[in-house]
Amino acid sequence: MSRGSKHSTAATQGERMDMLRTLRLAALCFSFAVLIVLWSTGEPKASYICARSAILINAADGQVLYEQNADSLIPPASVTKILTLYLVFDAMKKGQVHPGDMVKVSRRAANTSGSRMGLRTGKDVPLEEVIKGIAVVSGNDAAVAVAEHLSGNVDNFVSKMNIKARELGMTNSHFMTPNGLPAKDQLTTARDLAKLSLSYLQHYPESLQIHSMTSYAYNSASHHNANRLLGTCPGVDGIKTGFVCASGFNLSATAKRADVRLIAVVLGARAPSVRTVETEKLLEAGFQKMASDLKDGGTVEEILAKQQSSGNGKHSRLACAPPTPAGDGSTGSPKRSKATKKSAGNVRGGTQKLSDSKLSKKNKPAKKAADSEPSSSLSKQSKTTTAGNPQKAQVNVQALPSQKASPKQRPENLGRNAAQNKPSTAFELITPKRPGSVKKPDEEDKPSSVKVAKRPSNGNKQKIPPEPVKKTDKKP
What we know:
By secondary structure, the chain is of the alpha+beta class. It is built from 19 helices and nine strands. It is elongated.
């Protein structure tokens, strides 16, 4: 082989090696870029809405403006009634039913638990009134009645609900009841409810005339709409609230300002006030973003972040805990926060002090004071003791106030019936003794209900020699 051919072969091998190095470097860079993308997408996003799940969309084109755990499975509660009303309006549009049709109320519908419109078995109610009962009152009985009216029975109607949900692209939702009452495997997501609300308003915008009603009266009973954004947040005119223990407080709300309509879905708030505040905060941030699009005012998430850093909405964050999962959503109940327990304790304590002051002012007998505390365990025991041995029970109760008599008290007051004296406090009367506690011999000088129980029953005839009389006897 000639020297020239050797040089050409070496050059070819060098080019191949360079190409392999380049390919390896490109593959390494690509892998590194993929890892960065996966790592960034796997980062948990900041939660600016105090709820388990939330989403905000533009009703004009369905664009998602903000989302927070939007695909988490949560029981829908009474927000389910949006789908129920969707099928009712579909049937009216097809001419299958009419607003003036009379709906026969079955026993099952009338006996439905939870929030109720107040339907009675065997009554005929116009369909338009039942629709108001579902939309405004959130009547579970009304939802069952309309399901039976449209499909013959509830099971057939629920099947139609799930078919409609699949048509709307609610791929993560499944319904078991027409009213949202707790049922196993009845789950949805904030994203699916946003799709439902958007399609519902696009096809039947006239329904907002009913959803925007703040109250509704039926059968001489007035009911208020649970959507507290109506009349308080500008532009809000719907749609539906909901609550079950497994999910928390839910709301699908819509508002229109100028030519912009937004739909906000907030699921799993810890309290109805938190649900209202957080939904309003989300809507306000959405309208601010839409108004500042030409000025590049930032995303809804950035607006919420600025509000949080500046301290706006601080009270709402303090009112609830961070979002928490609830398993399959079929069972569970919201846990009471420490602040709630403390406030409940303060309320009970305030009631106790108030009852004490009233009893001391009115100078009621001791037995009546004990009976006026139905929540105490001792009051129940005193009734049982009175039934078995009324004489001994009377002495026990009467003797307690007299044990608090001070040395400066007038002697004639000590000789009166002990039941007429002022009771020391209601707390002393209702505080039960520890089980198994026995007085020691060296404690006999201390007041004891066991000690007093052995005294004669005719406490009215007992006389205590007054000290002033002894002093007069010593005078010459």
